[in-house]
């Protein structure tokens, strides 16, 4: 009889083998999780945008009539303009659930299904977000990221089998007052409506919902109305030069004064929205008010211009550098906080000036902050770290 050798494991060996097997399983799971995260981040951060070239179907504007140019731009670009519908639910004080609906516009910015729109269009819409491109077909959309400071957001749909029309990006730094522009959007729910006009002004200051300044906005007389928000403002070549965002209207309708966020602002914001879901800006950890505003109110101060620090956040960059906010002395009287007069030689007069300057810097940069304290000017190095209201009237935000 032939006997078989049987390898017998001791109890200790069985335990060691089980432990090793568990380690392998955990390691494999962790590896797959890490690779999945890397792949997702790669998918979000490696997006390339159609840029520069005029879309197919748009002739040289100098070779056709103005009417034909408008027709060609609309035919080529409108299939890439999204009609965004939002639904949100909230519970009132009586326990009843209230449904809120809204709509706006957006532009397809890549073949992967990413759509650029205004932050205020999709803010609070995580309950339900859908997109359509005309007709009855709708696509569920995912909120990818948003930036309240520039009123921009990115959402994403699963691209259909037939692909998507991508709206190419232009250059908003090379615009001139008087040049032709076209706006495509969904005013009052009327999908893919075209209006035309000219650039009425450049470098217009507008404000986001959180009261942060949005610099260099484009002013246009092309009619835009509620529902146009997030849609593209185009040049005569069919390239997006702005994102329609606000109108100036006491009555709520278009009076020929609309504002668009420059597309070059969007170019800076989009990569971070895709990778992080938000924009990581350098912060100082301070809050304050412009000295000039206080002087105008009749408050006597020892300096005429600068940013008076109300508070300095504990543990923040300014706190670590030794900057001081308003405090109380031993006798209970208020002690004036530091007044920032300049940063790296750039004059700072209020929070807007501070925001504009910090937007040019990177997290980890060290800036030289000049402050006025107790009658003396001090220079204090601050290492920057990473770290909200209705707009001023009569600006009205589109819905």
Describe this structure in words.
α1 packs antiparallel against α4. The N and C termini lie far apart (89 Å). The protein is built from 7 helices and 24 strands. 36% of the residues are buried. A hairpin with a 2-residue loop joins β19 and β20. The chain folds into 3 domains: 34 residues; 219 residues, Thrombin, subunit H, CATH 2.40.10; 105 residues, PDZ domain (Pdz3 Domain, Roll). The chain is an alpha+beta fold. The protein has a 7-stranded antiparallel sheet. A 6-stranded antiparallel beta barrel has the order 8-9-10-13-12-11. The chain is elongated, with a radius of gyration of 27 Å.
Radius of gyration using CA atoms only: 27 Å
Q: Biggest sheet: strands, sense, closure?
A: 7 strands, antiparallel
Q: What structural class do the secondary elements suggest?
A: alpha+beta
CATH class of the largest domain: Mainly Beta
How much of the residues is beta strand, in percent? 25-35%
Set down the secondary structure blueprint.
Elements: H1 11-45, H2 66-77, E1 81-91, E2 97-108, E3 114-118, H3 119-122, E4 128-132, E5 138-140, E6 142-147, E7 152-156, E8 180-185, E9 193-207, E10 213-220, E11 232-234, E12 240-248, E13 258-262, H4 263-276, E14 282-283, E15 286-290, H5 291-296, E16 307-312, H6 317-321, E17 327-328, E18 334-335, E19 339-343, E20 346-347, H7 351-358, E21 366-373, E22 376-383, E23 385-386, E24 395-397
Antiparallel strand pairs: 1-2, 1-4, 2-3, 3-7, 4-5, 6-7, 8-9, 8-11, 9-10, 10-13, 11-12, 12-13, 12-24, 14-23, 15-16, 16-19, 17-18, 19-20, 19-21, 21-22
Helix pairs in contact: 1-4
């Amino acid at each position: 009889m032939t006997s078989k050798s049987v390898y017998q494991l001791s109890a200790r060996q069985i335990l060691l083998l089980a432990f090793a097997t568990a380690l392998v399983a955990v390691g494999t799971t962790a590896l797959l999780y890490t690779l999945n995260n890397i792949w997702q981040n790669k998918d979000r951060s490696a997006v390339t945008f159609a840029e520069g070239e005029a879309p197919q179907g748009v002739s040289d504007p100098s070779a056709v009539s103005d009417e034909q140019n408008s027709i060609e731009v609309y035919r080529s670009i409108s299939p890439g303009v999204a009609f965004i519908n939002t639904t949100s639910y909230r519970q009132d004080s009586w326990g009843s659930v209230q449904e809120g609906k809204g709509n706006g516009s957006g532009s397809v910015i890549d073949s992967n299904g990413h759509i650029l729109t205004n932050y205020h269009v999709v803010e609070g819409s995580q309950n339900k977000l859908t997109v359509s491109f005309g007709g009855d077909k709708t696509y569920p959309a995912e909120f990818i990221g948003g930036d309240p400071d520039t009123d921009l957001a990115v959402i994403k749909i699963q691209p259909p089998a037939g692909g998507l029309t991508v709206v190419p990006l232009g250059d908003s730094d090379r615009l001139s007052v008087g040049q032709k522009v076209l706006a495509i959007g969904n005013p009052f729910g009327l999908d893919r409506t075209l209006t035309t006009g000219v650039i009425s002004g450049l470098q217009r200051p507008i404000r986001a919902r959180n009261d942060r300044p949005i610099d260099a906005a484009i002013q246009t007389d092309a009619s835009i109305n509620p529902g146009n928000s997030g849609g593209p403002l185009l040049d005569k070549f069919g390239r997006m030069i702005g994102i329609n965002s606000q109108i100036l209207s006491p009555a709520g309708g278009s009076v020929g004064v609309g504002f668009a966020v420059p597309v070059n602002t969007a170019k800076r914001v989009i990569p971070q929205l895709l990778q992080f879901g938000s924009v990581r800006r350098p912060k100082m950890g301070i809050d304050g008010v412009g000295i000039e505003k206080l002087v105008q109110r009749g408050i006597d101060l020892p300096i005429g211009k600068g940013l008076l620090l109300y508070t300095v956040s504990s543990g923040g960059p300014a706190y670590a550098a030794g900057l001081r906010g308003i405090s109380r002395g031993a006798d209970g009287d208020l002690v004036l906080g530091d007044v920032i007069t300049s940063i790296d030689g750039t004059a700072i007069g209020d929070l807007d000036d501070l925001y504009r300057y910090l937007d040019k810097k990177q997290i980890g940069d060290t800036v030289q902050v000049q402050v006025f304290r107790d009658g003396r000017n001090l220079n204090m190095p601050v290492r920057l770290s990473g770290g909200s209201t209705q707009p001023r009237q009569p600006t009205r935000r589109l819905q």
